[in-house]
Amino acid sequence: MKRVRPFSDRYGWDRGLPVDRHYIEQWISRHANDIRGHVLEVKNAEYSSRFGTPGRITIIDRDKTNHHADLHVDLDVADSLPAAEFDCVILTQVLQYTSPGCCLENLWRSLRPNGVLLISVPALGRIDVDDGADDKWRWTPPGLRAELARVGIEATVEGFGNVLAGVSALLGLAVGDVSRKDLDVQDARFPVLTCGRAEKPR
Fold first, then answer.
1. Which of 47, 102, 140, 180 is most buried, with most CB under 10 Å away?
2. pLDDT at 18
3. Helices 19-30 and 163-170, axial angle in degrees (round to 10)
4. Between β-strands 53-60 and 111-122, what pairing exists: parallel, antiparallel or unpaired?
5. What is the pLDDT of residues 134-182, one digit of tens each?
6. pTM (2 decimals)?
7. Strands of 111-122's sheet, edge to edge?
8. Percent helix, strand, coil in the chain (nearest 5)?
9. 156-160 and 111-122: which strand pairing?
10. What distance in Å separates the CA atoms of residue 119 and residue 112, rounded to the nearest whole number?
C-alpha cells in the first residue's frame, strides 16, 4: 500500500471488475424490475440488457464516434431528448461530466409518468484519465439528494462502501484483489458510490 502510483490507471478494469462497479451491479440488480419498457442508457446497453427486461433500448452518447449510439446528444442542452419517451433511464457514473441541473431536468422531462430514473455517482474517485477537464463533481448521499431536490426530483438515495473499499478504489484495485465479504461491509462514513432511485409522478 505504500506507493504513490495506483496499481491500475484504468480504475481496475485491466485487473477485473472495479470496486465501484461491484456496488453498481448489486444496486442495479436490486432494481431490475424498473428496467422495462423503453429504456435509455448512456454509451452502451451494459446494464439494461444484463439486468432488465426492456422492450426497447435507446443508447445515447455525445461522442459521435460511438457507432452503438442511437442518438448523439449533449445532456446539458435543454430538450435535446424527446419528452415523455422513456420508462426507465439508467445513468451510471455520468453526472460528474455534466452541468448537473441541466442534465437532470432534461432526463426527468424525457421520462413518462411512473418512469424511473436510476442514477449512480462517485462519492470518491480519481480524476478521469481520459476526460479530466470535464470530470467536475463528487456527491455524498446527502449531496445527491440535495442536487436532485434542486430540480424537483424526490429520490431514495443511499451510499455504498467502507474505508477499505475507498482505498482499494483509489489504488485501482479490482474486486478480485479484495474480499467481496469485506467490500460488502457498509460504513456510512466512507461512501465510494452514491445511488439514487426516483419515480416520476403520474
1. 47
2. 96
3. 120
4. unpaired
5. 999 999 999 999 999 999 999 999 999 999 999 999 999 999 999 999 9
6. 0.95
7. 53-60, 36-42, 86-92, 111-122, 193-199, 156-160
8. 30, 25, 45
9. unpaired
10. 17
Retrieve residue 120's grid coordinates.
449512480
The sign one gets for the Cα dihedral 101, 103, 105, 111 is negative
What grid cell was written down for 91? 445513468
Q: Which three cell numbers stand for residue 35?
A: 428496467
Closest by CA position to 103, among listed 147, 53, 156: 147
Distance from C-alpha of 60 to C-alpha of 144, rounded to nearest angstrom: 23
Please state, in angstroms and rounded to a whole number, the distance separating the CA atoms of residues 132 and 121.
16
Each residue of 167-190: b (16+ CB within 10 Å) or e? bbbebbbbbeebeeeebeeeeeeb
- Return all residues near 154 (Cβ < 8 A) that are at least 6 apart: 148, 198
